[in-house]
Recover the amino acids of this structure.
């Protein structure tokens, strides 16, 4: 693996150790490790330096001379190449004698003198010895490793001294705080002693007053005992009468509270009943008004041969309870004129029919905007349902008056449409826009009418 004078000639200008820079003591002892073992246990700083040396040379090599594993890194900058391909560069330096020769030749030509086994930089000296296979490689590698360890120890020492300085400053600060706290405690103790003496004087004064008050109280108790002997009977009667009057007053108070609660409950009940009657009356008037307006629209549609609203709602299957198909624009316009109509739209079924070339997000935005315009013209309630799997839906613009729903993960939009139809009360006209045969069949069974996607798109575009 390693070049020697008998196997690989030195390139022109390559750096080789000279007799002036390498002394006899540089030759390793007989117990030096084998080259493979020496390369296997190189310290990390030396590996990094070898990677930098090889990375600088690879950028100037012809593409044919760059080893196959390094060609994908050849276009990188030297620093980036050394960082990303460091292990590969070191492996090629160890295994490929031509590559080592080419690297040494480049450094001898472009940066002569930087790679010498006797250089002051221990990493460069060790790298040069390894690349040239010099006998002093083991000693120089060990010296570089010791130098790295010494640098780490110095860094650790400097860091420890810095921590000691910080701890010394912190200790001085704490000492100052301790002194200040002691002064505060001493002042507080003096203040407490002064207050204690003052309180003792007050207690002494209060003790004299208490003795006088105790003597006076004893005299008063004797007087009261003498008075009680004559008035105990009348006092007992007065107390009994007072208790009776209190009980009567409590009973009257409780009866008054019950009466007040009953009156309040009666007023509340009357108020709620009146409000309920007003709400029911309002709903009845709205229903009657909607029915009258719907009949007026239906009657204004044209001749006696056309479909009537009752015919549309009842179905077209000879008295069946299912919904009917709406297959043309005239029937769709008639259905949109019904009062309280709810239009349910199978979103992607309609949008993919009308504008399949647009992305799904643009399809949703365009369809919702057109439905909003239709709802504003006709006054119908509009709900559009899209499949929500793997969709992060942003708020759609221009959809005021349109309810836009997305199915939950694992749920089809078709099932949501069926659930919406089932949730509506019986008798309300429902129109489902879809071309899905299964959806059409299921919603018709529940009384909803259906319109193909193409017919709805004609009305939206018109």
């Amino acid at each position: 693996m390693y070049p020697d004078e008998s196997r690989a000639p030195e390139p022109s200008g390559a750096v080789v150790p000279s007799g002036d820079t390498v002394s006899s003591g540089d030759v390793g002892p007989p117990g030096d490790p084998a080259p493979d073992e020496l390369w296997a246990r190189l310290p990390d700083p030396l590996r990094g330096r070898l990677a930098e040396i090889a990375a600088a040379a690879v950028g100037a090599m012809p593409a044919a001379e760059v080893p196959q594993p390094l060609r994908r890194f050849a276009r990188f900058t030297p620093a980036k190449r050394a960082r990303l391909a460091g292990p590969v560069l070191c492996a090629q330096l160890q295994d490929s004698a031509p590559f080592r020769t080419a690297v040494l030749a480049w450094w001898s030509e472009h940066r002569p003198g930087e790679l010498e086994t006797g250089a002051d930089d221990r990493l460069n000296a060790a790298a040069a010895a390894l690349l040239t296979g010099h006998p002093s490689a083991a000693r120089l590698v060990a010296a570089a490793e010791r130098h790295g360890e010494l640098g780490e120890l110095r860094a650790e020492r400097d860091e420890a001294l810095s921590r000691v300085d910080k701890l010394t400053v912190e200790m001085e600060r704490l000492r100052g705080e301790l002194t200040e706290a002691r002064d505060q405690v001493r002042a507080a103790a003096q203040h407490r002693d002064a207050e204690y003496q003052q309180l003792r004087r007050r207690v002494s004064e209060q003790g004299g007053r208490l003795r006088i008050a105790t003597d006076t109280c004893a005299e008063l108790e004797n007087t009261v005992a003498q008075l009680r002997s004559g008035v105990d009977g009348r006092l007992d009667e007065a107390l009994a009468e007072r208790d009776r009057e209190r009980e009567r007053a409590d009973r009257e108070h409780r009866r008054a509270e019950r009466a007040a609660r009953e009156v309040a409950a009666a007023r509340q009940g009357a108020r709620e009943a009146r409000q309920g009657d007003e709400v029911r009356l309002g709903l009845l008037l709205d229903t009657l008004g909607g029915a009258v307006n719907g009949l007026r629209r239906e009657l204004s549609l044209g001749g006696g041969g056309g479909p009537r609203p009752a015919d549309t709602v009842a179905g077209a299957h000879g008295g069946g309870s299912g919904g009917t198909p709406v297959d043309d624009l005239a029937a769709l316009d008639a259905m949109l004129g019904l009062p309280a109509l709810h239009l349910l739209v199978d979103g992607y079924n309609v949008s993919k029919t009308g504008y399949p070339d647009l992305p799904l997000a643009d399809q949703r935005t365009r369809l919702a905007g057109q439905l909003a315009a239709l709802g504003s013209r006709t006054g119908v309630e509009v709900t559009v349902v899209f499949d929500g799997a793997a969709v992060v839906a942003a708020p759609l613009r221009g959809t005021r008056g349109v309810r836009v729903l997305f199915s939950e993960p694992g749920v089809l939009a078709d099932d949501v449409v069926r659930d919406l139809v089932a949730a509506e009360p019986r008798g309300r006209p429902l129109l489902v826009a879809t071309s899905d045969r299964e959806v059409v069949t299921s919603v018709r069974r529940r009384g909803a009418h259906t319109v193909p996607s193409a017919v709805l798109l004609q009305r939206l575009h018109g």
